[in-house]
Amino acid sequence: MTKAKFAICTKNPGYEASLEVRKLYQVIADQTAQSAGQIRVIDESGEDYLYPLSYFIPLDLPTSIANQIAQAA
Question: What are the CA-CA distances from residue 11 to residues 15, 31, 53 (Å)?
Answer without folding.
Answer: 9, 22, 10
